[in-house]
Write a structure and sequence with these properties.
The protein is an alpha+beta fold. It has a single domain, classed as Immunoglobulin-like. It has helices at residues 3-25, 151-154; strands spanning 40-48, 53-61, 65-72, 78-80, 82-85, 128-130, 136-143, 161-165, 182-190. The strands form two sheets. It has a seven-stranded antiparallel beta sheet with strand order 5-8-9-1-2-3-7, with no helix packed on it. Strand 2 (53-61) and strand 3 form a beta hairpin.
Amino acid sequence: MRALPLAAAFAAGTLLASGAALAQTAAPAPTPSPAAPPQAVVIAALKTADGAEAGTVTGYEGPKGMIFRVVGKGWPAGWHAVHLHAVGSCEAPGFTSAGGHVNHAEGARPHGLLNKDGGPDLGDLQNVFAAADGSANADVYLAWEGLDAHESDYVDANGLSFVVHANADDYVSQPIGGAGGRIACGVFEPVVVTAH
């Protein structure tokens, strides 16, 4: 009567052993090659009205939009609107030399990421939060799709600026979503890629 359980145990052990042998001899799955890191295309050094450093913004271009990596310092704590402005100039104290938001030369769109009456314009981005120590770290995304945006809207002889505002953007009201004054500004410059 004991032979049956022992035989069953032996058969099970043989099956497990053969399965383990198969697992050891099977070819390993190919390791996917790591993706190349994104290449920055533009960078802006942010300054406050009194000339103090206020961080950097680095732009990375993808197939359907751009990511702007914001690394802020010395910002007032809380939420801040950030926008792309149509002129590459940041003259203190009010940074009005940066002009208005990037927009189509003809058929300009109204301001606001949540504006259902034709928005957003081409300079609208998401709000960025600054911590109590004045640091801000965020990736904000600008989607080309639906904006009918073209490189010429952003890259022209006037350049391009990144502006930080005193208040949050409500994403709807005109002309700038209640964002308030301009507290920091930086002009985008192309990133020079050096060969290794």
